[in-house]
Amino acid sequence: MKLSWKTIMLWSLPFLVIGFFLWQGLLTPNASEINNNVTNSRMTYGRFLEYLDMGWIKRVDMYDNGHTAIVEALGPELGNRVQKIRVELPASAPELITKLRKAQIDIDAHPPKNNGALLNLIGNLFFPILFIGGLAVLFRRSSNNPGGPGQAMSFGKSKALFQMEAKTGVVFNDVAGVDEAKEEFQEVVTFLKEPDSFTAVGAKIPKGVLLVGPPGTGKTLLAKAIAGEANVPFFSISGSEFVEMFVGVGASRVRDLFKKAKENAPCIIFIDEIDAVGRQRGTGIGGGNDEREQTLNQLLTEMDGFEGNTGIIVIAATNRADILDAALLRPGRFDRQVTVDVPDLNGRLAILKVHARNKKMDADVSIKTIARRTPGFSGADLANLLNEAAILTARRRKEAITIAEVDASIDRVVAGMEGTPLINSKSKRLIAYHEVGHAIIGTLLENHDPVQKVTLIPRGQARGLTWFIPNEDQSLISRGQIKARIMGALGGRAAEEIVFGNTEITTGASNDLQQVTSMARQMVTRFGMSNIGPLSLESEDSNPFLGRGMNVGTDYSDEIAIRIDKQVQDIIRECHEQVLAMIQDNRVVIDKLVDLLIEKETIDGDLLEDIVSTYTYVPKKDKYVKQL
Predict the structure, then answer these.
(1) CA 438 to CA 530: how far, in whole Å?
(2) pLDDT digit string (tens) for 139-196?
(3) What's the CA gap between 546 and 602, in Å, rounded?
(4) What are the CA-CA distances from residue 152 to residues 146, 155, 246 (Å)?
(5) 458 known ligand binder
(6) Please, what is the angle between helix 219-230 and helix 179-193, to 10°?
(7) Cα–Cα distances in Å, from 380 out to 175, 270, 337, 487?
(8) Does 379 show up as a binding residue in the annotation?
(9) β-pairing, 267-272 with 234-238?
(10) Which one of 364, 384, 415 terminates a domain?
(11) Residues 245 and 334 grouped into a single domain
(12) For 439-455, how does the pLDDT look when each residue is reduced to its tens digit (9 = 90+)?
């Protein structure tokens, strides 16, 4: 483990203090000399006077300004041998010298040596010098680290990462699936490289471009591509880095950032997660004068204030454009808003081709099939998908990624990790009937997405899964398709009711019922697909987690609310009755499929469709969809 200078200083400080006091307390003048001239024998002062009266004292050496004496004594108690004994003398004993002279005792005084003063001086200066030196080292290291903890005078300096020629390793060819956004930014790059072609016709350079889209769709990747293509100075910073504990620091950092940008114009400033500083202003408890609002006000002024910033393009990214301040979004600040949405089929195909460049793919793997199986996946999801497939390939010690690893990776990304296979029991058979119920309804209904596979292998919280694959991206969904999805979701519960009876139905359909209720309610309240009429009674963006829709009352009366509940119940009851009839009519093929599913644990969609068309009413499926 590598320790920093700061950590070493903090850990060593207690030991330095202890050592300092030991230095002061132990290294007294002449201490070593006393220790060299004395044995372990000691004598009290009273005993010393008795020896003096008896004439047994032969010599006295005084140390430490007369406080300590080393005496040479001879007597019967000492074995009639001369021994050196240490005696601590009192501070005030003037008669002692007189007695020693009368007794004609050899007296010698040893004054303190000059090195004691030197040791005292070193001891007194050692700790302060060491402490000051440690502080100097810490401040020097902090000054070499921009934005470090020791820079008390540099709070207002911008923390933006500056690159004169941004070598991000990403260009527009590395960005796929967002062609419209790429076109917008290619125009910005051209403006920076060849401004004369635009200014000749009176066009002005845009001051700001706002990237809006869900997480993982490639907003930051686009900014890296712009930096790599433009070959102009590039500043990158996160919105949260403007805001500090002290009021005014964020505004100072904004001023410093734009000052540096003006010195290097034309240039690009990229602010990631701008919603951290660009949130809507309000009065609040402090009257709207808090640190974040001052920072936002300064940013608004720098982008389009009294003094223009010619040649500076601000690119910002956020996935919460609904909470940004209106003054920030107006033309003149962010002139363009580019939506980077979840890619469609062609976009996913292009993204997969980019991420498959450095992957060893088996010849049988179809990138288009993977793209069709991944509706709703963002660019980050697709990159993670192929990475999971590569990891699984290495774990299985294969040389190339096959369709088996891709399927397993899709299942893992969507549903979670694979669990322990179920044992052959009543519970496994019940789950098999539940999943086959979903699959048979999805196969028989014309407006339902085709079945991709049915499996009894647990993943995440699900004990079994039925996968459907859409034929195409559906931005518009018909009433028939919604009802088909409701019936497909009810297929599992209906199979449990028909096969095992109402007393044996389980909690396995809880998530299915939530989806059914949500779809039916949206048909009534948002899409106008009920007897109430073409009315939109609930808003789509009433999400309290985005700061909207909290404590907001409904826009309809209690009578309409009762009618809404009645319509939702009627839609679900009608679909439920039709599904029960379909399960009852196709009980034979359901039993065949359950036995096969328990044996193999997974049935793919093609085999399922072949079995259903052989045994049941697929040619007559209009019988079940005529009411849709």
Answers:
(1) 25
(2) 666 555 544 444 444 545 656 566 666 666 777 877 887 887 888 778 878 887 777 7
(3) 41
(4) 11, 6, 12
(5) no
(6) 30
(7) 12, 20, 22, 33
(8) no
(9) parallel
(10) 415
(11) yes
(12) 999 999 988 888 888 98
CA distance 131 to 560: 78
Q: Are residues 515 and 440 in the same domain?
A: yes
Q: Give the ranges where 501-604 is alpha helix by DSSP (H).
A: 510-525, 558-585, 587-600
Q: Are residues 334 and 313 in the same domain?
A: yes
User: Could you tell me the residue range of the domain that residue 196 belongs to?
Assistant: 161-281+290-339
Residue of 229, 293, 435, 496 with catalytic role: 435
CA angle 370, 363, 179 (to 5 degrees): 45
**Residue 508 labelled as part of a binding site:** no
Are residues 404 and 294 part of one domain? Answer: no
Domain holding 576: CATH number?
1.20.58.760
Tell me if 434 is assigned to a ligand binding site. yes
What is the CB neighbour count within 10 angstroms for residue 205?
16
> DSSP characters for 187-247?
HHHHHHH-THHHHTTT----SEEEEE--TTSSHHHHHHHHHHHH-S-EEEEEGGGG--SST
* Domain count within the chain: 4
* CB-based contacts of 280, cutoff 8 Å, min separation 6: 323, 324, 325, 326
Find how far residue 555's CA is from the centre of its chain.
39
CB neighbours of 549 closer than 8 A, spacing ≥ 6?
Answer: 539, 541, 542, 543
- pTM assigned to the model: 0.66
Residue 213 labeled ligand binder? yes
Same domain, 459 and 588: yes
Active site (annotated) includes residue 435: yes
- Residue range 343-375, pLDDT digits in tens: 888 888 989 998 898 889 988 888 988 888 888
